[in-house]
Amino acid sequence: MIAVDAMMVCLDLSDIDEKLVGFARSIFERVPVKKVYFVHNIKTSELSDDFREFFGDVNISDEIEGNITDIVTAHFTNAADYEILVSEEPNTEIILADLVKRYKIKLTLLGKKMSDKSTGALGTKLLRILPCSMLVFPETAQFPIQRVLVPIDFSDASLHALHLSRNLADQLRLHLEIMHVYRLPSQFFPLISEEKAVKKAEEVVKEKFADLQKKHPEIAGIPYTLVRAANKSIAGRIAQQLEKGKYDLLVLGLKGNNPLPSLSLGSVPTEIYNTDINVPLWLVYSEDVIK
Fold first, then answer.
1. Mind listing the pLDDT tens digit for each residue in 211-262?
2. Pick from 205, 231, 230: nearest CA to 152
3. What is the pLDDT of the chain when averaged over all its residues?
């Protein structure tokens, strides 16, 4: 059974906070969660001299904590063990990474605005450095969740995401589907006809799925779709499949095996995060990768 010892919810004092807290409550109602931390960091660099001169000795941390408390209590009164943490640090991503380690956070919930409202720069940084799995909730997303899509590339990371998704689907009675995006070696055209190349590529992938199902019988009954990348990126095809299949959750495994933080996230998760998708995105690390 999937359970979360500690979950962190990152709030930014914008309109999305209300939906994010509501989504956190939805998770709490369906998955065992021991404790929830609602956090916000006030970047000290944003507190200008003009601000301090205008507001004087107002304790901004207390004011923000009170605002967050109003939102949280509307959803979590007598429902969960939670704590509100407001900090004043120059670097938000560093303090949040520290909180993840200090409180042994297993899952971080992060809101995401559409690209016309935000660059998503902070979110991208958090995805790269937080040592835990992350659940990204776009402002246009809805809940609860019924249909789940798991793209796999047959790597250990994607198989971990698949097993986790299968457990979640069984636990919550969700409909789960797998997809795989393949590419053709275009440098061989026109020596080999495109039709033959597609047929051969799909045969190879189907053999991989057959081998996978033999090794892991528990995933044998999950339907899967093969999609050719063609003139689109892998992330682009995944986004297209999301819209086509009317899914409610996308799950991607993160490798995290590169010692350079700027390279550990992977190109597909990064591109998906920077795409205006309308469903929550669950980016999962295995425990071994986190350690």
1. 999 999 988 889 999 999 888 899 999 999 999 988 999 999 987 544 444 4
2. 205
3. 86
Tokens of 88: 């004043």
d(CA 96, CA 44): 15
Q: Among 3.20.20.370, 3.90.550.10, 3.40.50.740, 3.40.50.620, what is the CATH number of 1-139?
A: 3.40.50.620
Q: What is the rounded end-to-end Cα distance, in angstroms, of the chain?
A: 21
Instruction: Give residue-wise pLDDT tens across range 39-66.
Output: 999 886 665 555 555 555 667 888 889 9
How far apart (Å, rounded) are the C-alpha atoms in residues 220 and 233? 28
Contact 40, 68 (CB under 8 A): yes
Strand duo 224-228 + 281-284: pairing: unpaired
**Where exactly are the structural domains of the chain?**
1-139, 145-291
Residue 213 vs residues 149, 157, 231, 248, 251: alpha-carbon distances, Å: 18, 17, 30, 25, 19
For 7, 131, 171, 176, 290, the CA distances from 31, given in Å and listed in that order, are 11, 21, 9, 17, 21
Neighbours of 111 (CB within 10 A): 24
Integer Cα distance of 164 and 282 in angstroms: 11
How far apart are alpha carbons 162 and 168 in whole angstroms?
10
Candidates 3.50.50.60, 3.40.710.10, 3.40.50.620, 3.20.20.480; correct CATH number of 145-291? 3.40.50.620
